[in-house]
Amino acid sequence: MARVDYQGNAGTFRTHRTLPPDVLAVWKEAVVRAAGPAPGRVLDLGAGTGGFLEPLADWFGAAVVAVEPSAAMRDEAARAGLTGRHPYVGAWAESLPVRTGSVDVAWLSTVIHQVDDRDQVFRELRRVVRPGGVVALRGFLADVPATGLLGAFPGTERVAATFPSTGEVVASGQRAGFTVRHVEDVVEPWRVELPAWRAGVRDLRHVDSWCRALTDAEIAEGLRSVEAAYAGVDGPIASDVTLRLLVVG
Ligand SMILES: C[S@@+](CC[C@H](N)C(=O)[O-])C[C@H]1O[C@@H](n2cnc3c(N)ncnc32)[C@H](O)[C@@H]1O
């Protein structure tokens, strides 16, 4: 599938995809337990609009460097006031402008399914992550089905099959010299207002990795079935979403 173009959508991405505090709290617990400590430097690779920068700095008490190839995403991070506090470098994961052995933890949140050359990305990660350091991935993976409200959309199994599996990601890591340290399914407790959620689906129709691969009919059917299921419900709806944490080192 063609590369995602975030031009014109980065602000919407930040609005709908920035993790709320309750969701960040479960990731903090899981990531610090599985990947910490990181005394020196954390690399946020494919940092997008920067929603993990302050959390990573807080979780690890470390300096955070962001690498993000999309100018639209970097500009949006700048508008959010994040680029002054953390270096925000325009580059691709396949060729990192980062010193060899200078990173304690590399964090990739919903990035690995988008990269063109996964083996090359892991070779670069092996180079920049110091011996004893780790790579922690929050993944959209083929063997983790769509959950939460997204599970109501027909066609998500087909979309999931376009993502790499855990085994394929692990194999790329192993070819670069990493071994698996930890695998965990993290349940994100999203609580969403239906109108805002519906707007998110529509606004990110051609950007979100799940939505863009669904057909218009599948999107319409998913929206219809969620609205029918929650008709008359006033207030936030629980949408627990499972993503996999994979740590290699
Ligand atoms: C779904 S967004 C996730 C952004 C952020 N990590 C987050 O969780 O909010 C995927 C990001 O990966 C970036 N990306 C895609 N391919 C990449 C590559 N080869 N190297 C580095 N970043 C890449 C995109 O530009 C985009 O910002």
SS-based structural class? Answer: alpha/beta
Number of domains: 1
CATH architecture: 3-Layer(aba) Sandwich
CATH superfamily: Vaccinia Virus protein VP39
Q: Give the class-level CATH name.
A: Alpha Beta
Give average pLDDT, whole number: 96
Number of helices: 9
> Could you tell me which ligands this complex binds, including any ions or cofactors?
S-adenosylmethionine
The tally of beta strands, per DSSP, is 7
Cα distance spanning the termini: 30 Å
Helix content: 25-40%
Order of helices and strands: HHEHEHEEHEHHEHHE
Sequence of strands across the biggest β-sheet: 3-2-1-4-5-7-6
Sheet of most strands: 7 strands, mixed
Query: What fraction strand?
Result: 15-25%
Q: List low-confidence stretches.
A: none
The value of Rg in angstroms is 18 Å
Task: Tell me the CATH topology.
Answer: Rossmann fold
What characteristic shape results from the CA principal axes?
globular
Give an account of the 3D structure.
By secondary structure, the protein is α/β, with parallel strands linked by helices. It has a single domain, classed as Rossmann fold (3-Layer(aba) Sandwich). 36% of the residues lie in helices and 22% in strands. It has a seven-stranded mixed beta sheet with strand order 3-2-1-4-5-7-6. The longest helix is centred in the N-terminal third of the chain and has 15 residues, at 21-35. 35% of the residues are buried. The mean pLDDT is 96. Bound molecules: S-adenosylmethionine. The site of S-adenosylmethionine has 19 residues, from loops.
